[in-house]
Request: fold
Amino acid sequence: MQAIRLASQRVALRRLTTAAHAPVSPTAAPSQSAIPLSNVEAQWERMSKSDQAIVHRQLEELQRKDWKQLSIDEKKAAYYVAFGPHGPRAPASPPGQGLKVFFATSGLIGVAAIIYFAIRSFAPPPPKTLNREWEEASNERAREAKLNPITGM
Reply:
């Protein structure tokens, strides 16, 4: 909506800078004809920027009236243009993207696990100093030699 406002401001500035300016009213030019508001949600993405600006102006004019007099389609169109999923409110990712990311992440984790276990299968056995018996024997020798500090046993 802010882009449409900026576009209308640029048009207003252009009108001020031209020497021979004919006043433009919404019904004067054929390009400014009334666009049906019945299904703006479906048409909005395919409309040109100028058509979107025209629809926005139409809705601004309609919203100046009593809201009780507006039709349901006009209210829906006003809401969609103001708050719809277009422009900066467009979804960052298309529907179904989360599922693709989940499967891709799961696949990469699976490949990492396969590589990990493949490397582990070709690795030599751990050294004999890493088993429980060796640790108990070294602790016993440390007690016999009265090495300090020995804690946690």
About this structure: The helical segments are 2-17, 40-43, 49-63, 72-83, 97-122, 132-144. The radius of gyration is 36 Å. The CA atoms of residues 20 and 97 lie 53 Å apart. DSSP finds six helices and no strands in the chain.
